[in-house]
Amino acid sequence: MARRKDIDGSMSVPTFYGKELRWKREAAGLSLEELVEGSFYGKSHLSDIERGERRMPLELAQHVDQVLDTDGFFARCCEDVGKARRGPHAAYFQQALDAEQHAEVIELWSASTLPGLLQLAPYARALVLAAHPMADDAWIEEKVSARLARARLLDADHGAPEYWAVLHESLLADPVVPPTEMAAQLDHIAELARRRRIVPQIVLRKSGPYPLMAASIMLMAFVDAPPLVYTEASYSGNTTDDPALVKQYRKAYDRLRAVAQAPDVSLVMIEAAAEEYRNGKQPNRLE
C-alpha cells in the first residue's frame, strides 16, 4: 500500500485548513466517500481540499460540519480560506483560479480582451500595464508570468479541460499590441485550435443584438462538483455556484454560441487576421 503523503499545514491557509479537515475526518473514522455522502461533491474534490489544492465551498463546509459535529467550524473558516491569496493573481480571482485547474469543461465568452489562458506575453503585458499604469516593472512581470503559467493547463498531456472560447470579432480587428505581435498572438490561438486544444468561435460585429453583450463570463463544469460561473469586470470578479443563476448563464451561453460562426469558419478568420497583421495590413473592420 502506498504511503499517504503528509500535509504541511504551515505552507498556507488552505493547507492548514485541509490538514484540520483530514484530522477531524479520520478522528471520526470516516473515509472520503463516507464524508461526502449526501452532498453534491465527490471524494476527489474533498481530497483536493484536504491537500490545500482547492478551496472549500460553503455548502460543502456546512455538510462537513453537520456530519462531523464540528459546531460550524469549517463553515466559519471557509470564507477566510477563500480570501487567502495564492500568488500574484487578484484576490477576487482566487476561487476561479483554483476551479479551472480541476474543470472538465471551460466555456468562455469575451468581447473586450482575449482570454488569459490564450494570451502570449506581449499581449498580457500590454493589458496589465494598461490596467496599472503606475506599477513598477517587476510587479508587472510577476503578473505576466503568473498568467502565462496558467496557460500551461491547455498543454497538459492528460487532464486538460475541453476549452470553448467564444470571442467577438473586434478582438481580431482591433490591435492591442504592434502588428507583428498581434500576428504571433493570433497564430498562437490558431495553433491551439489546430491541435484541438481549444474550440474557437467568433461573433461577428454585424450580428446585431445577442446574449451576454454586456458580460464577460467563464462557465466551468466538473466531474466531482456542481458547475460554476465566473463573471468579471475591470477590477472585480465574482464566482457563484447558485443553481438558478448558473442555469440562466448556461442558457444564454448556448444561445450566444448559436449566434457565433462555426469553429472551422472562425479558425479561417483568425488565420486571415494574423496574415494581414503579418503583411502590415489592418484586418477588415466595420467603422
UniProtKB/TrEMBL annotation:
PROSITE patterns xrefs: HTH_CROC1
Domain called HTH cro/C1-type: residue spans: 21-73
Parts forming coiled coils: none
Transmembrane segments: none
Cited SMART domains: HTH_XRE
InterPro entries assigned: Cro/C1-type_HTH (IPR001387), DUF5753 (IPR043917), Lambda_DNA-bd_dom_sf (IPR010982)
Name by which UniProt lists this protein: Helix-turn-helix transcriptional regulator
Protein species of origin: Streptomyces kunmingensis
